[in-house]
Specification:
13 helices; globular; alpha/beta; single chain; 25% strand; 24% helix; seven-stranded mixed beta sheet; six-stranded mixed beta sheet
Length: 573
């Protein structure tokens, strides 16, 4: 123990002890989101306080964020963010670093999702990667106690596995919704994005989509003001203020000879307002740069300038086979998806056209009806669906096409009638349309175009039983959630593990970037689900493991319009 009086301590010779300000406080960090605005970049600041601290959940995987801690500037890059956002954030971070006077040691740090530094995580409330480990146990049996319930057991949510399958929407309800949405629709203008140009689609091409293209639909429709979101409501209020002067003059003129009942009618009319929703449809094989390119284009700016002065405008990005029911209803079941790129100037498929096979399918209800091009093979036929085969032929020395509408023997009457109607109206270059019923001596040219007659499935009862579950720990704990019945190949998330129940088999699909914890818990969940189904129905279902890119034909047939996966670009740190 040291003895003596601290008051007699003197300063060392030649040195001066500086006085420190007791009121000094650490600067509060600021979090910004890099956002694509109308023709320019926006940098909105995210709000947080003592009662609502900055948490990890604020960071979304499709976004890029800037964190300014005064001593450093951090760029957080989401795993699914656009390359344009990443490049813009890199430049903005340097500008922010230079804007104010900082310590000489201040630098820009780039953090990628999943591999954030300890310094970056320290600015967020309760974000740490500390794992409780029992060193008395073997290495392969060490249990992580993070996100536990206090009893040493990892928190999981498997509720979705034990809920009954949601019943499909009735045909009457689907028809009512379709008619209602079509009645509210005022106008619809269609454009296709080709390079940097936006070409207006001819009327005959509306409802035809190509997997390598992007399309823009300007839909104006009536909507209740009470259903407006914050963005639409803000735009509506601004438009009302701009037109308030004209309304005042009209009101003054009406007071001279108007009646009391007129105000009530006006109030009723103001309950609804016209809204323009811009749908951006992106094909599965289209470039990912298309959406940022459209967001910063003069075409989008002109839309905002011309339509925005009349009504609120909002954008909605939708992906192939992930469209909402409202958008699908605008095409009245005539929704076709072709492989490849749209022919330039609507030229035919010259010089060497090939046979094309399309499958007509309704996923859950008639609103989710699509006609999607699939591989041209008789192995992909199924008696429970209808198909269209477009075959090139010659007539009088000229190229023409024959369209065969193949009706499966176990397909529904609604699907059969819809397929025949699509076949009669879908193609302008078809010379002959022939309706073939399964088992009624299909012509040789039909089987020849499909690579020969082979054994195909004759049962599609699994459509009434199929379910897709997603297994993920993105919430901070392992949870299972169910996808809607209108799912597709792109719903298979590469960062997660999926469970697919076909009624006879339970598939565990493993994404390449899923974690070991997700894989192990998903397999245990699938086994638990398998046992649960067996206890309910008494039927045992086979459990199979499927890896991304190595799916067998039995698995592929459960999806509408299956195609090869796009090669993933590895993010370099």
């Amino acid at each position: 123990m040291l003895e003596g009086d601290a008051s007699v301590i003197t300063e060392p010779a030649g040195e001066k002890v500086e006085d420190y300000d007791d009121a000094y406080s650490v600067p509060t960090p600021k979090l910004y989101e890099v956002h694509l605005g109308v023709g320019y970049l926006e940098l909105p600041q995210l709000e947080f306080s003592v009662n609502r601290p900055m948490t990890q959940q604020m960071l979304r995987t499709q976004r890029v964020y800037l964190l300014d801690s005064f001593t450093d500037v951090f760029v957080w890059v989401g795993a699914h963010s656009d390359r344009l956002l990443r490049a813009a954030a890199a430049k903005l971070s340097i500008e922010i670093l230079k804007m104010i006077k900082r310590p000489a040691t201040a630098i820009v740090n780039t953090c990628f999702e999943g591999v954030e530094s300890a310094m970056f995580r320290s600015f967020f409330h309760k974000w740490d990667d500390i794992v409780a480990v029992d060193f008395t146990r073997a290495a392969d049996k060490v249990i992580a106690a993070a996100n536990t319930d206090g009893k040493g057991e990892m928190k999981v949510d498997l509720t979705a596995l034990f809920i009954k399958r949601e019943p499909p929407m009735s045909q009457t309800d689907c028809t009512d919704y379709r008619e209602q949405w079509k009645e509210n629709l005022e106008t619809m203008s269609c454009f296709v994005m080709e390079g940097k140009n936006y070409t207006r689609l001819p009327a005959g091409e509306q409802g035809h989509f190509y997997t390598e293209n992007c399309y823009i639909f300007l839909c104006t429709y009536w909507m209740f003001i009470s259903d407006f979101n914050d963005d639409l409501l803000e735009q509506y209020v601004i438009l009302q203020k701009k037109t308030s002067s004209g309304k005042k003059k009209t009101t003054e003129e009406g007071e001279n000879g108007g009646e009391e009942g007129g105000s009530e009618e006006e109030e009723e009319e103001e309950e609804e307002a016209l809204v323009c929703r811009v749908y951006f449809w992106q094909g599965r094989d289209a470039s990912k740069v298309c959406w940022p390119q459209y967001s910063l284009s003069s075409f989008r700016s002109k839309i905002r300038e011309k339509i925005g002065i009349k009504m609120p405008v909002e954008d909605e990005r939708c992906y192939q086979q992930q469209e909402n029911m409202k958008f699908l209803s605008y095409f009245n079941g005539q929704f076709m998806i072709h492989k490849g790129k749209r022919p330039a100037n609507n030229d035919p498929e010259s010089p060497h056209p090939r046979p094309r096979l399309y499958q007509v399918r309704q996923n859950g209800n008639i609103l989710a009806q699509r006609c999607v091009e699939i591989g041209c093979s008789s192995l992909l036929l199924n008696s429970g669906f209808c198909y269209m085969l477009k075959v090139p032929a010659e007539k009088d020395g000229e190229m023409c096409f024959i369209l065969y509408v193949w009706i499966g023997s176990r397909s529904s009457e609604e699907l059969m009638n819809a397929s025949i109607e699509i076949g009669k109206e879908a193609f302008d270059d078809v010379d002959t349309v022939s309706v073939l019923y399964e088992g009624t001596n299909e012509p040789d040219i039909f089987w020849s175009a499909l690579g020969g007659r082979r054994q195909y499935d004759t049962n599609a009862d699994w459509m009434a039983l199929i379910r897709l579950f997603r297994c993920s720990n993105e919430r901070g704990y392992f949870a299972v959630s169910e996808k809607c019945s209108d799912f597709c190949q792109d719903d298979l998330s590469d960062e997660d593990v999926m469970i697919l129940d076909s009624g006879t088999d339970v598939f565990v699909w493993i994404g390449e970037e899923s974690s070991d914890v997700e894989r192990k818990l998903a397999l245990k969940s699938a086994q638990l689900y398998q046992q649960h189904i067996q206890d309910l129905s008494g039927e045992a279902r086979k459990l199979s493991i499927v890896r991304r890119g190595k799916e067998n034909l039995k698995f592929i047939k459960l999806f509408h319009g299956w195609g090869p996966f796009r090669a993933r670009t590895k993010t370099s740190s």
